[in-house]
Design a protein that fits this description.
This protein has about 140 residues and is an alpha/beta fold. It has a single domain (about 1-130), classed as Rhodanese-like domain (Oxidized Rhodanese, domain 1). It is built from six helices and five strands; from the N terminus they run H-E-H-E-H-E-H-E-H-E-H. A five-stranded parallel sheet has the order 1-5-4-2-3. Helix 1 (about 1-25) packs across helix 4 and helix 1 (about 1-25) crosses helix 5.
Amino acid sequence: MAGSVQRRFFFTAVCLALLILSVSFFWKIPTLKVSSDSLISMMDTGDTPIIIDVRNKFEYENGHIPSAINVALGHLFFQHDELAVSQKSHVIVYCNTGLRARLASIYLRRVGFESIYILDGQLNDWKEKGYPVAKVA
């Protein structure tokens, strides 16, 4: 029974993701980006925005941006109202390749979040520049 519920949840999340992605391409929804350099500068000055890692738990535990919270993309679709984040806060989302981050940014904008950015270059760029990466022990 639990497996059946998980399959339905996954199927629903995938369908929703595909719908959001296709709508974004049709309407040419712009994606706002922030560079790794800008983010580290914000963090150094204490003006850290809300950072959401939309990868799965395993990926997050193996390395993430310090202070990032983990909300996997599939969960974000169904639990965005549970985020302890003001819809007026600056929010930066990231993943590994940018696809999940783009979907998350479009979705969050559609449900009322005002200032959503995608980390340009994603986590790979962050790591290549030698910026800190936290791991869950």
